[in-house]
Specification:
The chain is 50% helix and 11% strand. It has eight helices and four strands, in the order H-E-H-H-E-H-H-H-E-H-E-H. The protein has helices spanning 2-9, 35-39, 41-45, 55-63, 67-81, 94-111, 127-136, 148-155; strands at 29-32, 50-54, 116-120, 140-142. The relative contact order is 0.14. The chain is globular. It is of the alpha/beta class and 156 residues long.
Amino acid sequence: MHGVSVRRREVPGRTPGRSRCPPRGPGAQGGHKLPRAAITAGEIAKEADFFSFGTNDLTQTTFGFSRDAAETKFLAQYLETGVLGFNPFETLDRDGVGQLVHTACAAARDSVDDIKLGICGEHGGDPDSVSFFHGAGLEYVSCSPFRVQTARIAAG
């Protein structure tokens, strides 16, 4: 966690000590794009002001294949033959990626109860995924502009 601590002190405009800044203000972010970051979220939370789960990257690293390669080479076949029941880049894989997000949220809140938690990525515009994120305790989603309205409706 030393690298997180050093970078945290270097954030321009950030006041010393733990900030309550929202994701748009200056602050130390725990970007969770890798399974290891999700698994060690409790430690990372001690040095971060907020977490933003990069669900596209987290999906790629959890499944072990790139979105581009999957969607151009084999994902259609996986869906047709039932290897996968849905496209995990469109709807969150609750059992794998979702479990990592849920575990990370719980660990982060155990360490820092008021940490801000959210996601960025296309899953933020999928109603089923937004429902999961709400249940996991995430406070915001960020997605592409054409999916914002869907995300708002799903969030209620």
